[in-house]
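Run log // design_07
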């Protein structure tokens, strides 16, 4: 079952201009755009990903409190992990 908090998260690419990058967009408030190199992002842990690889941008220009920021990046990490897990199709069996 897919957690409801991932309803407004999207995984994407811009193959024409940034073929080596992937991104996550969270469209619910606070909106956030996270860009990372695909080759580096898949083979790292949470701390290294958000300290050295990912570029986090809040779309309204205001970073939330540290507590809320940490919850958002944890949710993004969990979303990426679910999207890229080998058996992710099983998450969709009850929702489609």
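design_07 sequence
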């Amino acid at each position: 079952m897919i957690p409801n908090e991932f309803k407004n998260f999207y995984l994407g690419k811009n193959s024409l201009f940034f073929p080596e990058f992937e991104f996550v967009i969270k469209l619910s408030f606070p909106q956030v755009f996270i860009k990372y190199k695909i080759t580096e992002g898949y083979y790292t842990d949470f701390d290294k990903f958000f300290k050295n690889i990912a570029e986090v941008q809040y779309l309204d220009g205001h970073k939330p409190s540290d507590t809320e920021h940490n919850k958002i990046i944890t949710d993004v990490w969990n979303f990426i992990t679910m999207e890229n897990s080998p058996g992710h199709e099983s998450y969709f069996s009850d929702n489609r």
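The chain has three helices and four strands.
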